[in-house]
Specification:
By secondary structure, the protein is mainly α. Helix content is 53%, strand content 0%.
Length: 257
């Protein structure tokens, strides 16, 4: 699931292989070639330097991670758990709705192609960084340490191997990165967009598939990468296009007041 989630960022900001009946109409699109990143020339080592290592075993931060994970048992089946289930992937209707509501504009590949391209290109950079970190640190998922319950069905497959490694959280990173980038596109919506970005990571803790430090440092990685992306001339040019089309985009329906 996690590799599929990150592969979605590398290709089209949303997986294109879902069956037609299950594919949310708002994000349905033909498969796209992998987009060039804004900082594609960076080596995996340079990307790893954007992120500190995970907490050392026995450290106070590692103990805090374990405590928060244990406390998470109280939320199993609750509102945040159910919300996390609805946002396991970037094609899920609730995830797409959350992005659009935070932005105040309905985004689709057909109606806002420049905005989707902006997210897709940044997603290429983020996917490379997150893959490099996960494969380097190989941190186990929290539920693998006690056979605990998690909201993602892939947690039950081969002891959670389908989800990949835990550090950092790709969901937390992409939520925060998209919040930062879309705040550039619509500054007047920045508070709501950053709240969306933070919630995306928090839901992975509620789902019990990530340690709290996975989420915190996923946001840190996204912030460090964003600072590099934002200096790119290509990013600045793409941002102008996204701002123009978002000014004309339709208002999404059914958003919270």
């Amino acid at each position: 699931m996690m590799r599929a989630f990150l592969a979605a960022l590398l290709i089209a900001a949303a997986p294109a292989a879902a069956p037609a009946a299950a594919q949310p109409a708002v994000m349905a699109s033909a498969p796209a070639a992998a987009a060039p990143g804004y900082v594609a020339g960076q080596s995996p080592l340079a990307l790893l330097r954007l992120l500190p290592p995970p907490p050392e075993t026995g450290s106070s931060e590692a103990q805090a991670d374990k405590y928060l994970y244990r406390q998470g048992r109280r939320g199993i089946g609750g509102p945040l758990w159910q919300q996390a289930v609805g946002q396991l992937g970037v094609t899920s209707p609730s995830f797409v709705k959350a992005v659009s509501c935070a932005l105040g504009a309905a985004i689709t590949p057909q109606t806002t192609p420049a905005t989707m391209a902006l997210l897709r290109r940044a997603g290429t950079d983020l996917g490379r960084a997150v893959f490099a970190a996960k494969d380097y640190y190989k941190r186990p998922r929290p539920f693998t340490t006690d056979r605990g319950k998690a909201c993602d069905p892939d947690a039950a497959i081969d002891g959670g191997k389908a989800l990949g490694f835990s550090y950092p959280s790709g969901h937390a990173a992409v939520g925060w990165l998209w919040g930062l980038i879309l705040s550039d596109a619509r500054p007047e919506r920045s508070a709501v967009l950053l709240k969306f970005g933070k919630t995306t990571g928090d839901l992975r803790i509620a789902c019990r598939v990530h340690w709290a430090s996975d989420v915190t440092n996923g946001r840190l990685l996204a912030t460090a990468l964003y600072q590099q992306i934002a200096d790119s001339a290509d990013y600045k040019a793409d941002l102008v296009k996204a701002r123009l089309e978002l000014a004309l985009a339709s208002v999404p329906e059914g958003c919270p007041a």
